[in-house]
Amino acid sequence: MPTRAETNERAASLRALFEAQGAAVVEPPILQPADTLLDLYGEDIRARAYITSDALRGEQMLRPDFTVPVVQMHMAHGAEPARYTYAGEVFRRQEQDPERANEYVQVGYEVFDRTDPAAADAEVFALIAEALKGQPVTPITGDIGILMAAVSGLETTDDRKAALMRHIWRPSRFDALLNRFAGRTPVPETRAALLAGEVTTDAPHIGLRSGAEIDRRIAALRADAEAPPISAEQVARIETLLAVKGTLTDALVKLQTLAQDLPEIAEAVARLAARAAALAARDIPTDALPFAASYGRTSMEYYDGFVFGFQADAHPDWPEIATGGRYDALTRRLGNGAEIPAVGGVMRPGLMLELEADR
């Protein structure tokens, strides 16, 4: 196990690599306002973060990552284009897997540049791949934006599409909703009774929802029950999309073929093609680079396009050594009306040192 001093030394060398690319060093505070992350991710974030209370500042959260505060800083004060780097501790609760570290050092590189998003994607990936050169790791890439485009194009209600969008990062919940909206699963008896008017709503209220909120929820459930099911053909196309995997070169051909029957994804697939060309221009062998359309769906919800990771070959149970992706929508959420294409990646120097100790 590397010492803290060894980890910090490696973190400093990685940060220097990004500084050499013109990145400005930033140091967001360890304590972050909790309301921003709660607004972005809902109450689910409480299961993954450490939250405390301050009499003057309200709820505060130990920094779960750097991306959100860096985006906030850039949207408030940054010039265009901009590149940032940072190194420091992040904190994640690990109640489901207590063997994993709940505090570790993260080093990152973030690019805010609207000139050529495909080139920026390739820049971030290539720099991190270079920093990991010689390490026994295997990369994987994906593109959340293609699935999002497919969901947006479904012939169903806006409420159903919004629900599927919310759960893209929760695959089991997404699949359950898709099956329900397609009429593949039976309506639970309790819901069927409620929809049939066999359940009254004049019982004493339990919980935080008001009577008006409960009535609106029941009305939404009834409206959903009256909507026609998503067609089997559309569901099959979503499932075909999620099953696409192979090398980036091969996957691109499969997705271009699928786009002929699913034109909603054509623009996103074109972005993937541009990214593949930009990666090839940086000597990344796209005919050997793994791609999976379903990759990245259990990461933080701000990724909405290119996603990537590097997994330790001999330790499939470890967290990924490096991860990253595109988060254009996050800049819109935090930009108070402004937005800019943005992509970044993070590395874990402590895990890099552990890998080296294995050899």
Automatic annotation (TrEMBL):
Superkingdom of the source species: Bacteria
InterPro entries: aa-tRNA-synth_II, aa-tRNA-synth_II/BPL/LPL, HisRS-like_core, HisRS/HisZ
Species this chain originates from: Sulfitobacter sediminis
Protein name (database record): Histidine--tRNA ligase
A Pfam family: tRNA-synt_His
Complexes and interactors: Homodimer.
PANTHER family tied to this protein: HISTIDINE--TRNA LIGASE, MITOCHONDRIAL-RELATED (PTHR43707:SF1), HISTIDYL-TRNA SYNTHETASE (PTHR43707)
Any one GO MF annotation of this record: glycosyltransferase activity
Span of domain Aminoacyl-transfer RNA synthetases class-II family profile: 12-359
PROSITE patterns: AA_TRNA_LIGASE_II
Keyword terms: Glycosyltransferase, Transferase
